[in-house]
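I have been asked to look over a protein record a colleague put together. The record follows directly below this note.
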Amino acid sequence: MKTQCDPGYGLPHEPSYWAATGYKGSSPSGEVEGDIDCDVAIIGAGYTGLSTAYHLAKLHGVRAHVLEANRIGWGCSGRNGGFAMIGIGKDSYEGWIRKYGVQGARHLFDYARDAVRSVKTMLAENDIDAASPHEGYLYLAHKPNRFNELKKTQNLLKDKFGFDTWLLSREEVRTQYLNSREYHGALFHPEHISLHPMKYVQGLARAARQYGAQVHERTPVQGWERIGALHKLHTPKGSIKTRRVVIATGGYTPDYLHPAVSNKLLNVLSNVIVTEPVSEEKLQQCGWKTHQMLVDTRMLRFYFRLLEDKRVLFGARGGIVDDARSNMKTKAWLLKRLSDFFPALEGVRCDYFWRGHVDIARDKYLHLGDAEGGSVHYALGYAGTGVAASTYSGKQIADRLMGKSALANIPKLSTPLPRFEIPSLRRLAQRAAYGYYTIKDEWF
C-alpha cells in the first residue's frame, strides 16, 4: 500500500536551496532497461547506498548496481541541514552508559566520531568541494536550567570518552557568536562539520562511478522475489538478479519492500527554510558573528546556521502529515519562530522551504542488520543523525558483504531492527510524543 513515505517514481528533487545550488543532472548510468545480473544490488542512492557502492568497488573490486527511484540524493541525503555530527540515534550519552556500560558507550562514541572522520576522508580523497571551513557546533541551552545540563555533558564527554568541549556563558555566546533572548549559554563541540548536502551526495556518486559502480536513476524496486539463491528485483523497465541486496532507503523505506524492514521504522518529518540573503545591518542587530552550526537543547530541537552567502538556514522537527495545507502552516511557523529568536529578522523573505522524512527505529538506535542468511543487508534508523553515520555505515556494510567482521565491539548496532508492537498506532504514538516533548521543552 502506498504511503506518504513511498519514494514514488521519477520525481524531481524538492525545491530546496541544496537542489537549486548543487544538483548537476542525471546519472550517466540511466535507468535499468532489460534484465541485469550482478553480485550486489543496492536500493537507494543516498549517502548509505553510494558509500556502500564506493567502498565495495574501491576496496573489494565489486561493482554494485545502485537503484534509485528518483534522483541521486532525492531523499534524506539531499534534504538535510548539512550537519555532519558525532551522534547515533536519539538516545543520550547517559542512556548509552546505562544500557551498555562505560566501555560499550565508548565504542558507540568512537564509531560516531570515526564516522565524522570518514566524511572528511571522503571529501579529501575524492576532491569533493562540499564542506564549510567552519568546523564545530554550539549546543545552546534554551532555558537557564539547561545550562547545568551542559556542564554535566561536558564532564561526561571528558571523563568517559576523552572528548574536550568548551562551556560558554550566556554573555560569551551573546558577544562572540550570536545574540538571542532564547539562549542561556552553550557547549562548543569541535570536530563536527557542516556540508552542502547535495554537493556531497553528488560527489559520492561521482566517486562510486569512477571506481566502476553503476548508479541508476528512475529505477524504483516495484517487486521482489526469491529464486533459489538469487534475489530478483523488478523495476519499471527491467529487473536485477543478484546474490546480495543492500537496503539503503532511509526515511523513504516502505513497509512492503522486504519483511526485514516491514513495520520496523517510524518515518518523521523534518522541516527547513532558507531565507533571502540577510543584510549586514540585520546580522549586526542579531549579533550573528558565526557560520558554525547551532542546535538547541529541546527534544523537538531547532537547528540553524548562517550559510556562506549570508542566508539563514533554520530547521526543526514537527508535523505529522506531508501535504499542501500542512506545508503552508509549517513554513509560516518556522518563519514565526525564527523572528521569535531574532526579532531583527521579522519580515525576512523565505526563498526556500522543504520537508523530508527521517527514519527512527523502535529503540531509537541505528541498526546495521541482515536477513535471509546474510544475503540481505541494511543500515537504517539514523534518527536525524545520519549525515556522517551513513557514510561510515556504508563502509561497514561493504566490509560485511565481503565477510569481514565489522562491529565486533558494538553488537548493538548489528542487531535486527525491532518491530513496532502495534504498527498501525505509530502515528498516534508520534502525536502523543510530540505533545509530551513540547510541554517538556517549553515548561520544564
Q: What stands out?
A: The chain has a mean pLDDT of 94. The CA atoms of residues 133 and 193 lie 8 Å apart.
